[in-house]
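[job 4471] stage=fold_predict status=RUNNING
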Amino acid sequence: MDNMGNYYNDMWQFNLSNLSWHELNSIPSIGRKGGMYFNNSSTLFYTTGITENNTRLKETWKCYNPAGINEISNTLNVQLSPNPASEKIILEIQNIEYLKNANFKLIDNVGQVICSADLLQETTQINISNLSKGIYYLQYSSSDSFQTIKFIKN
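[job 4471] inference complete, writing structure tokens
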């Protein structure tokens, strides 16, 4: 709902890397206010809300925000290979300044953290042989940067 009292069913995503908004597909429902959402990197969940007639809605929408495997960003000089992988993945930090307070989290496709560790060197091998086949995310963060990389476990 905007400040003029108009209700909308549009959804927007804020991109932290370039500090800009872009519109996602609208939910196929009526406009609302007071809904809640959460995001696990690839999927946005939006639930409940109140209609223009002050009727509480009892619905939840799931909107995918996929990032293709070939869309790995090198803006932070962080690379993950091979992709897809079966036994191990190699995380490479190509600028030593990105190691300051750096760590990674390995996250499954429902947002659960499988493992995490501090990064102490420019190249880190991560054993993924015990993971089930599927899509996973490696989330890298340091004192002044953040990046999520999608990969496939064969």
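[job 4471] summary: The chain has a mean pLDDT of 78.
[job 4471] exit 0
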